[in-house]
């Protein structure tokens, strides 16, 4: 295989990114605006074209709240900490069944202690208060674009080989590197074995992290990555493109041919492994991730539905065009319409390759940032349609309030937890139709204000 040249040059200064493995990542429901809806609302959707409206008054975001999970109480945490050694020892049969040697298990778990500070991060859930536009604009910065071009130039042979081997767009692979760790400068410093071991025996996600802990043991026991180099986020993601240990076991490849799958120290292994993951996620060679489009007047906004894929020729027949007269892709290529900021923001036709990016991180805003950064590194320009200047992400308390108000009116929103799942988004759209609002499905200030007004509060 290809010998992997190492990234040279100065490190890029900047803030840590939002998504390092599981740490701080928004769920897809918190950032997406593409919703499913029943067909009886279609006529109302066409009639309600977007119109300018004054900015809603700003309200302070609600603070994040601590978990009330029984495994997260002070008493439960103290018991788990006291029982840590016994818990780790109890995982040896599971580890041995998955190929960890007895000597390796003893070596890497000897003296292992929990990092109880991780519980503070697990217990206080970060509030996602950025709009999709803010998120994408923050991540697709001119500095990150420039640095991406430099990184690809310095590792041109690696990216050429990755594209040839997997049929994945190398610019998308580079964009993942840039957004996950700022091209290697923001990887995290937590020992992965300690982090996953702590979470495997303490707190509310123990079953999930037991698999991650055993996978981390397998990495060390096989010798793919030295223990002192296996560091990452508090949740256990590591390497240039932030693999969780189980994802590493599933997708990592020895792309530089040195006998080790080292996504920490080898650019070739990290980029090859990232491309392999995207290919497994369904990447189709020769296609874009998606296209910015303009929508015609009187457009039926109920067509903005992830489940509603149409051939490009049908979108064309509906009056959908690319900005500035750019050519539409092939007529048989399937795509769905995404409105990440509602009817007032940019619109996109997304291909199956967008869903392949979502296999890396299932948040629409993340996948949109990856695709856009890839295009900008390639030499493309910014989006033509600006993001709405008056947009504000609702706080979790406001989202919960919105769900409660919708439920009181008979809409099925699912659990009233502030997470905007499919049921809530469908309910928002149904309410928008009934209230004479544009049914773009966006849980916005406008929708919440309308509900409050109708409830007289």
UniProtKB/TrEMBL annotation:
Residues making up the signal peptide according to the UniProt record: 1-28
Annotated stretches, region: Disordered: 45-72
Pfam families: PG_binding_1, SLT_2
Residue span(s) of domain Peptidoglycan binding-like: 398-451
Sequence ranges assigned to domain Transglycosylase SLT in this UniProt record: 84-375
Annotated Low complexity bias: 45-67
Keywords on record: Signal
Name of the protein in its database record: Lytic murein transglycosylase
């Amino acid at each position: 295989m290809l010998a992997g040249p190492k990234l040279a040059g100065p490190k890029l200064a900047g803030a840590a990114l939002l998504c390092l493995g599981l740490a701080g990542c928004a769920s897809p429901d918190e950032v997406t605006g593409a919703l499913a809806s029943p067909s009886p609302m279609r006529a109302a959707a066409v009639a309600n074209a977007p119109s300018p409206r004054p900015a809603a008054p700003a309200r302070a975001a609600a603070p994040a709240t601590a978990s009330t999970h029984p495994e997260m109480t002070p008493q439960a945490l103290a018991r788990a900490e006291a029982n840590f050694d016994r818990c780790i020892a109890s995982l040896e049969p599971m580890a041995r069944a998955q190929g960890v040697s007895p000597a390796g298990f003893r070596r890497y778990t000897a003296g292992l202690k929990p990092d109880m500070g991780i519980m503070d991060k697990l217990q206080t859930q970060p509030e996602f208060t950025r709009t999709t536009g803010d998120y994408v604009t923050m991540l697709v910065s001119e500095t990150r674009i420039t640095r991406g071009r430099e990184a690809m130039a310095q590792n041109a042979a690696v990216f050429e080989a990755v594209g040839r081997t997997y049929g994945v767009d190398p610019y998308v692979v580079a964009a993942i590197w840039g957004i996950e760790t700022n091209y290697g400068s923001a990887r995290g410093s937590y020992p992965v074995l300690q982090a996953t071991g702590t979470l495997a025996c303490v707190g509310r996600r123990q079953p999930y992290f037991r698999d991650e802990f055993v996978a981390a043991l397998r990495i060390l026991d096989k010798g793919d990555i030295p223990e002192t180099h296996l560091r990452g986020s508090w949740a256990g993601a590591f390497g240039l493109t932030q693999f969780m240990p189980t994802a590493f076991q599933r997708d990592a490849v020895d792309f530089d041919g040195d006998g080790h799958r080292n996504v920490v120290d080898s650019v070739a292994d990290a980029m090859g492994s990232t491309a392999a993951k995207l290919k497994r996620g369904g990447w189709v060679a020769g296609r874009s991730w998606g296209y910015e489009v303009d929508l015609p007047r009187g457009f039926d906004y109920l067509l903005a539905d992830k489940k509603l894929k149409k051939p490009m020729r049908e979108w064309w027949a509906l009056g959908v065009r690319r900005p500035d007269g750019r050519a539409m892709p092939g007529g048989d290529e399937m795509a769905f319409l995404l409105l990440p900021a509602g009817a007032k923001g940019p619109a996109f036709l997304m291909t199956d390759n967008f869903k392949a990016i979502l296999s890396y991180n299932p948040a629409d805003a993340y996948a949109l940032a990856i695709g856009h950064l890839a295009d900008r590194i390639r030499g493309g320009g910014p989006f033509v349609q600006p993001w709405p200047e008056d947009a504000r992400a609702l706080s979790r308390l406001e989202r919960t309030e919105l769900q409660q108000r919708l439920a009181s009116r008979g809409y099925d929103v699912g659990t009233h937890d502030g997470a905007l799942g499919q049921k809530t988004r469908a309910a928002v759209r149904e309410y928008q139709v009934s209230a004479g609002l544009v049914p773009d499905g966006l849980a916005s200030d406008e929708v919440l204000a309308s509900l409050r007004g109708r409830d007289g509060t």
